[in-house]
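#structure-requests
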Amino acid sequence: MSFSPFSFVRMSIDFVCQAAKQRLRQWTKPGNHALVLNAAMDLTRSKPELVLENMLLRQQLIVLKRQVKRPRLTRRDRTLLVLLASKVPTWKQALVIVQPETVLRWHRDLFRWVWRGKSRSKCRRGKPPLTGDIITLIKRIAKENRSWGAERIRGELLKLDVQVSKSTIQKYIYEMRRPGAPKQIWATFLRNHAREIWACDFLQTYDLFFRTLFVFVIIELGSRRLVHFGVTRNPTDAWLAQQLREATPFGVGPRYLIRDNDRKYGS
């Protein structure tokens, strides 16, 4: 059998075309990783053909689901399913091997992973970590000032040229204070300011002949030290003012003075 040159060229071209089609089918075969190339080839196909192919693929997945109860998916598979589901309005109906709740969980995990990476990059580019002295100072301020919030403590630290974020201060505040505990009670106030508080009061007693005597006493709460005392039978405003002057001869007095509502103190 003889072949003309024209027939030989035509057979060669057909062979090359068949080989190219076969190679292209291998590249676009479902299950391979050439997703972009598959999508590009789908643009050249008719809609009925795509619908029938989807039915064929879905039926195979249904059969596969009967055999494999829990298919193994890689992180790349999960990410790809999340991205495709975000672009398809009917993504819940298109799922076969996983539940919609699973894809939503993967989406939340992906969201946390992305923002965790951004936070770490900001931390690497941001300020250096806090030193132990600053952490100790924050805890001490939070412990000694129960009514101060994170913003107040941050303002006080800025006066010392210490820049700390509000969220960081809140973390150490929660370590020092129990949730739900009152911010400030009377015992806390006394413990924090005892050395700056004096307390005064009148004590009524009697002498040998049962005559009334009034003893005016001033003590320092922090050390229980007796600061001053005076005795009189008739406490007046002038006498009381003189006692206070004698208790603070150089103008050095307490920050707070605790007393009752006795009329002896006058107006």
